[in-house]
Amino acid sequence: MAQLLRRLDDEIYVEYNMFGLHGTDLPAWSSPTDEIYHFVAAVRLESWDAEPGPADASWTPVSSTTFVAESGVVAIVSTMEGKGHDFLIGPPRFEYGVDMYLREPEPGDGHATGECEEAWLLRFWPIRDVFDPITHAAPFSYIARGVLYYSIDLEPEQLVQPPARREVPVPVSAVADWASLRADPDLDTFDGWLRMVRRKAEDRGVTVHELLREAGIDIEDGVDLTLASCTPPRARAGRFQDPLIDRYHAEQARWGSLSGRDLGVAQLREYADGERIAKELCRSGTQTFSVPVEGRGALYVPPGVSRRVWRWEDDMLGGELMDEGLTVDRQVLARNPWTRQILVSGIVTVLRRDHDRHGCGDIVWYVVRDAEPHEAARVLCAEATWEEDPDQRRALDEVAREKLIELRATYRSRES
Q: Domain of life here (predicted)?
């Protein structure tokens, strides 16, 4: 029997009766109510672990289709920059089904502003793993300095070509393998938060009330631990109209994490979505850590995507790990005897940006976890599939040299 994994209520302003589903290969959609062109829609997004049965009788079926998810995170987007909250439906590079339903808005739909003219229900479920390293993990095209600087079109032979054969079998995962397709009772509930607080207090040898007071919450010994008593007055519900932002602000303020920060609604929205999805991508007790991602493509790595990263670590005595992370296909690539550091490579799954660490230039810090076996198998398959052939590389280098000679001759003739 299909199980509901998570649900999110949102609102989106629809313009010209057109909206899209960001993070998918689907074309633009339109509301079945053709006479409405500009309106606020209440949107309920649901993620299921298998195809669900029909929704209750209050919802009218509209359409059903399939698509491939890019990262496993989707969002409703409208024509003119309007975007809903990010929502995790499952793993990247899976084929999914989606059912769309329509009804008149009811209390509790969306953000309950009373401005919604119709309500939609979108139900997502995984169908199968469709990862293909040739389609989904191709490296960047062959790069020649002159071609980059002068914007000369690349010849077909200068592009990275798909290999004639795959070096390793393409891994095919099952739905049950993925943390994002398994329900976790501790996620986003006060009871789950309280269990975490009790474990932390026990580890430190203090009472829960003492730990809460250290975090700046005015609570006396013996007071019942409720959502109201564990939340500072300034962080209680009602500060923001958007309930997801309001809840995130309250959770962060409960621990004093927002002290000294003056975050606007847009930043709180980004942080709230990132924190929620990062939790949903982990199993209980998962170790997370931060890594720098540098170079091409570092600016935005979607959550849920697995990739190889590199970083310098302190060379610990006895070979101990710096933060218990970067253990999957771990490779020591270089040693710096002067600084006692090692350059290490490993495979991780990206959870969210690390807002507490700011890189410089093209370096971006991300909160990650070690990749699970089925995730690492995709990265290893892509690396083996696209491993560069030395003879092909020498031939491409020769093509690039000829191209640059022609380029320089062209510019000299123009100057004369």
A: Bacteria
Residues 207 and 325 in one domain: no
Q: What pLDDT, on the 0 to 100 scale, is given for residue 9?
A: 87
Residue 201 within a domain: yes
Q: Judge whether residue 338 has pLDDT over 80.
A: yes
DSSP 157: G
Confidence of residue 167 (pLDDT cuts 50, 70, 90): low
At 211-237, the pLDDT tens digits run 888 877 778 888 877 766 776 665 555
Distance between start and end Cα atoms, the chain: 77
Tell me which residue of 244, 358, 280, 246 sits closest to 11, measured CA to CA: 244
Is 280 in the same domain as 294? Answer: no
Give the structural domain span for 363: 287-385
Query: Does 33 share its domain with 151?
Result: no
The CA-CA-CA angle for residues 139, 143, 146, to 5°, reads: 165
Answer whether residue 161 is part of any domain.
yes
Mapped onto helix, strand or coil, the DSSP state of residue 128 is: strand
User: Could you write out the DSSP letters of every residue in 315-363?
Assistant: --GGG--SSS---TT-EEEEEETTTTEEEEEEEEEEEEE-TT----TTE
Give yes or no: residues 115 and 9 share one domain. yes
User: Smallest Cα–Cα separation from 133: which of 407, 379, 414?
Assistant: 379
301, pLDDT greater than 80? yes
In angstroms, the CA 255 to CA 87 distance is: 25
Cα-based torsion angle of the residue sequence 125, 127, 128, 132 in order, rounded to the nearest 10 degrees: -80
Is 80 in the same domain as 153?
no
Q: Are residues 162 and 112 in the same domain?
A: no
Tens-digit pLDDT profile for residues 56-115: 888 999 989 999 999 999 999 887 767 888 999 999 999 999 999 988 887 767 776 667
Q: How many domains are contained in the chain?
A: 4
Among 285, 302, 337, the domain boundary falls at 285
Same domain, 199 and 306: no
Structural domain includes residue 174: no
- The answer to whether residue 264 scores a pLDDT higher than 60 is yes
Task: Say how far apart CA 49 and CA 124 lie, in whole Å.
Answer: 9
193: helix, coil or strand? helix
Is 176 a member of any domain?
no
Reported as a pLDDT band with limits 50, 70 and 90, residue 144 is low
Residue pair 137/162 in contact (Cβ under 8 Å)? The answer is no
